[in-house]
Amino acid sequence: NLGSVIQNAPTVAEGLVLAGADWEVEKKSMYFTNAEGVQVNMDAFQKAMVRKDNGVILGTVGPKTEILQNKDAFNFFDPIIESGEATLETAGVLDEGRKIWVMAKAKLDPFVIATGDEVLSYVLLSNSHDGTMAVRVGFTPIRVVCANTLAIAHGAKDSQLIRVRHSRKVKENLSNIRDVMKIAEASFQATAEQYKLLATRN
């Protein structure tokens, strides 16, 4: 469950390949056979999420769930990388593709909490293809490199992550999220300043 360091990827598209996330998923119909031996379509209730490249069933989702393809998750970082606000850092595919994440390192000065104790700011986008969680995007001081650090980033009080549902507007919502992230950045900085104050107390 280790991710990949993609610091040397000059483009988001190359980062997608380096992370092993250059594949797509699709929703497929599910069926069951009733007591009369008739095959019943389950489309009104659930659909299977399947990897197109190898046919692995990643989970089940509601019929209205909108897919956020890996390339769209990575493309979220395009304007951030191109503007020089951040550089690609790590990315990973967990549990055969049930969860993925992409992380960039924000070009913000680190917060020095105490001598030798610096807090860096990362931009994280994580997504699930198994229907277990919403898309999460925002700032975190946790450098995600594996399943454990992803869970820590999700649960950390210092992470300023916004949840985006897999609705039909998921890509539109993500394209508008950068304005919201500026608010999250301010909150992240306030948290770091509070830590710095605490570090000066005996």
- Quickly count the helices: 6
Per the principal axes of the C-alpha atoms, what is the gross shape? elongated
Lateral strand order in the biggest sheet: 1-7-8-11-12-13
Spatial extent as radius of gyration: 19 Å
**Which series of helices and strands comes N to C?**
EHEEEEEHHEEEEEEHEHH
Q: How many runs of DSSP E, i.e. beta strands?
A: 13
Q: State the secondary-structure class.
A: alpha+beta
Q: Pick out the low-confidence regions.
A: none
Fraction in helix:
25-40%
Largest sheet: 6 strands, antiparallel
Mean pLDDT: 90
- How large a portion of the residues is in β-strands, by DSSP E? 25-35%
Q: What is the CA-CA span between the terminal residues?
A: 40 Å
Any overview of this molecule?
This protein is an alpha+beta fold and 202 residues long. It contains six helices and 13 strands. The strands form four sheets. Strands 1-7-8-11-12-13 form a six-stranded antiparallel β-sheet, sandwiched between helices. Strands 2-5-6 form a three-stranded antiparallel β-sheet, with no helix packed on it. A hairpin with a 2-residue loop joins strand 9 and strand 10. The protein is elongated and about 75 Å long. The relative contact order is 0.15.
